[in-house]
Amino acid sequence: MSIDYKSAGVDIDAGNRAVELMKDAVKRTYTPQVLAGVGSFGGLFSALNFKDMEEPVLVASTDGVGTKTKVAVAAQKFDTLGMDIVNHCVNDILVQGARPLFFLDYVATGKLVPETVATVVQGAALACERVGAALLGGETAEMPGVYLEGELDLVGTIVGVLDRKDLVDGSTLEEGDVLIGLPSTGLHTNGFSLARKVLENEDLFVPRDFLNGETYAEALLKPHREYVLAYRALKEAGVNIKGMAHITGGGLIENPPRVFPEGLGARIYEGSWEVPALFQKIVELGQIELVEAHRALNMGIGYVFMVPITDFDLAFQVLREAGETPYRIGEMVAGEGIELVAR
């Protein structure tokens, strides 16, 4: 009996169908710098626009959405996963002040369902459009035996650029500088293994009063948001942004110190922002200790700006005018790491 690729578990036609379904959404992200279309072996992006910079620096980051895909599979809801991975990567390079240029995605499945893959990529395209990045290319991998049928994995890579003189690296931070936190929309793309463990005996699809009628699944699948527009508003207003932190795995305990100079730490006041009900319930059901909760989960703060006290009022005003809900969550102090203080 003859064996072909499809009988071995890989359907080339399904892959081609997925590309057709996503093609228009991908093309909408193209900027004038994109020189090669869908299906090229390599994405081409013109660097001519960099010539107005004194010393252009490329900034790159790769990440995944982790086990959030397990919740998406259970709910059969995939439209936000693409947004998750794009916005996660965008925020990672934003920490150093980089402007996103282009993004590449990698979607892997046990059995390729064209409509599912296309939905994921269409979500990524929407997120790319919002921040002005091109969805330059990607890969769809059907890997029977590696992934269970019905499961998928999602990874993304972003490349951005900045002029070296505009690099934000935390090196000028000093005692008394203020930490301003912006809200997350939920767990974003971190802490899902803990959340799933805590909620394993809960029905994810029953509306909950404490979630304003949403189900756990709906609350968990809210997309990871981006903070590019907030950053641009602050920059245009002339706020001196000394440092930034994207609150991902490690939470508020481990992420801000990644940009602190030697000899400096920060005091963060628990209770200085509104912790969403979803986090409160996860902490309650899991009997999670305070520090562990702030290491594993973002606890409602997705991004932190670090500014001089003299710029705080202006920064707060600008963020509010930009539609944000900023919180003064702490300040820089002598020492190291994060001191979490109950207010």
From TrEMBL:
One of its GO terms (biological process) is 'de novo' IMP biosynthetic process. Keywords: ATP-binding, Cytoplasm, Ligase, Nucleotide-binding, Purine biosynthesis. It is found in: Cytoplasm. One of its GO terms (molecular function) is ATP binding. InterPro entries: PurM-like_C_dom, PurM-like_C_sf, PurM-like_N, PurM-like_N_sf, PurM_cligase. Its main location: cytoplasm. Pfam families: AIRS, AIRS_C. Pathway: Purine metabolism; IMP biosynthesis via de novo pathway; 5-amino-1-(5-phospho-D-ribosyl)imidazole from N(2)-formyl-N(1)-(5-phospho-D-ribosyl)glycinamide: step 2/2. Residues 174-341 form the PurM-like C-terminal domain. This is Phosphoribosylformylglycinamidine cyclo-ligase. It comes from Deinococcus cellulosilyticus (strain DSM 18568 / NBRC 106333 / KACC 11606 / 5516J-15).
